[in-house]
């Protein structure tokens, strides 16, 4: 959400630099927010030191103070390049037309004498958040939820939690969160009367209640979110894994070279703490014969039991 607001503020500034005056209603329609939100944006821009004046009357509107020009010291080429880099990275998972337009606008204010160097700076780093199989199925949900968040409209959906329990939810959407390549919605649940996190991949039959607006609530601190959070320390258990001697590359890839400890027999140990849930079981089983759970005992037994269940499926003598 902070990225969305930043791109809107920058777009308004660039638009006012290129036009003498624009109406608040036009800006609201352009960025799909309320007129009230636009006036809050204008106040934020004023506080940042860029003087914006509101002109009353039939031909009135919003414009920069007469004679004002954006000081090049306000945003340097390096700062503009950092913004473009951030937008390019977020667009790998959350791409929309506004992002592309904003990047074009930023490129347009860079002097032609610096354009080649500017392009080079924006291509030095790219954080690709997209999964290997793409985001095409998730993109419609993201766009719909962005609209609901921006316009403060209630959404409803059918939700399947981590235990496979299915329920109907009506919520007030407040923020989209990307964590560990997974998208979540932070929303106030009208049934539970508290903020919850919902994974977008577990949502079905998502719809906006266009006639049911809501007033934004104060977001709780991350550590006080009701229910299980994206990264809740209270849900974590400490465990120890032993990787085979010839499998240290797997341990390095998933945990980092600083996290693995060489043992006298040539194996490698990793001590970590993750929430114990279906994801953890699948994660450990995904290493196959390369890893062994040493502790705690109950996790070792759970993995052994599930491995046996998998082996039973592939038994050669299994009746057909």
Short account of what is shown:
The chain has 320 residues and is of the alpha+beta class. The protein has helices at 2-18, 24-31, 35-47, 77-91, 97-109, 115-122, 139-151, 248-255, 278-285, 297-313, and strands spanning 52-55, 61-64, 153-160, 166-179, 182-189, 194-199, 203-213, 236-243, 260-262, 268-275, 291-295.
Biggest β-sheet: strands ordered side by side in the sheet: 6-5-4-3-7
Count of separate structural domains:
3
The assigned structural class equals alpha+beta
How many DSSP H or I helices? Answer: 10
- How many angstroms does the end-to-end distance come to? 53 Å
Q: Main sheet, how many strands, which sense, barrel?
A: 5 strands, antiparallel
The CATH first-level class of the largest domain comes to Mainly Alpha
Query: What integer value in Å does the Rg equal?
Result: 25 Å
Structure summary, number of beta strands: 11
Helix content, binned percent:
25-40%
Element order: H for helix, E for strand: HHHEEHHHHEEEEEEHEEHEH
CATH 2nd-level architecture of the largest domain: Orthogonal Bundle
Taking all residues together, what is the mean pLDDT? 80
Query: What fold name goes in the CATH topology slot of the largest domain?
Result: Arc Repressor Mutant, subunit A
The global form is: globular
Low-confidence parts, pLDDT < 50 over ≥5 residues? 223-230
Q: CATH superfamily of the largest domain, called what?
A: Winged helix-like DNA-binding domain superfamily/Winged helix DNA-binding domain
Q: What is the percentage of strand-forming residues?
A: 15-25%
GO molecular function: DNA-binding transcription factor activity
Protein name: HTH-type transcriptional regulator YobV
Pfam family, one: HTH_11
Organism: Paenibacillus radicis (ex Gao et al. 2016)
């Amino acid at each position: 959400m902070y990225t969305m607001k930043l791109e809107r503020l920058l777009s308004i500034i660039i638009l006012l630099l290129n036009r003498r005056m624009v109406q608040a209603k036009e800006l609201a329609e352009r960025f799909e927010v309320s007129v009230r939100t636009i006036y809050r944006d204008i106040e934020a821009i004023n506080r940042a030191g860029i003087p914006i004046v509101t002109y009353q009357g039939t031909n009135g509107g919003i414009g920069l103070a007469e004679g004002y020009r954006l000081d090049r010291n306000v945003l340097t080429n390096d700062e503009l390049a950092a913004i473009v880099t951030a937008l390019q990275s977020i667009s790998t998972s959350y791409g929309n037309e506004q992002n592309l337009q904003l990047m074009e606008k930023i490129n347009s204010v860079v002097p032609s004498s610096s354009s080649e160097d500017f392009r080079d700076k924006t291509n030095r780093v790219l954080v690709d958040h997209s999964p290997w199989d793409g985001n095409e199925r998730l993109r419609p949900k993201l766009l719909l939820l962005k609209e609901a968040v921006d316009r403060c409209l209630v959404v409803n959906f059918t939700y399947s939690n981590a235990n496979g329990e299915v329920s109907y939810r009506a919520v007030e959407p407040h923020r989209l969160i990307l964590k560990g390549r997974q998208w979540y919605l932070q929303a106030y649940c009208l049934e539970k009367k508290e903020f919850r996190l919902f994974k977008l991949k577990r949502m079905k039959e998502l719809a906006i209640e266009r006639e049911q607006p809501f007033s934004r609530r104060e977001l709780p601190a991350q550590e006080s979110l009701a229910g299980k959070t994206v990264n809740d320390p209270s849900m974590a258990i400490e465990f120890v894994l032993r990787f085979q001697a010839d499998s240290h590359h797997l341990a390095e890839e998933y945990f980092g070279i600083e996290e693995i400890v060489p043992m006298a027999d040539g194996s490698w140990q990793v001590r970590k703490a993750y929430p114990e849930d279906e994801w953890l079981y699948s994660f450990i089983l995904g290493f196959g014969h390369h890893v062994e759970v040493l502790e705690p005992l109950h996790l070792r037994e759970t993995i052994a039991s599930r491995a046996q269940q998998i082996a039973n499926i592939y038994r050669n003598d299994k009746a057909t």
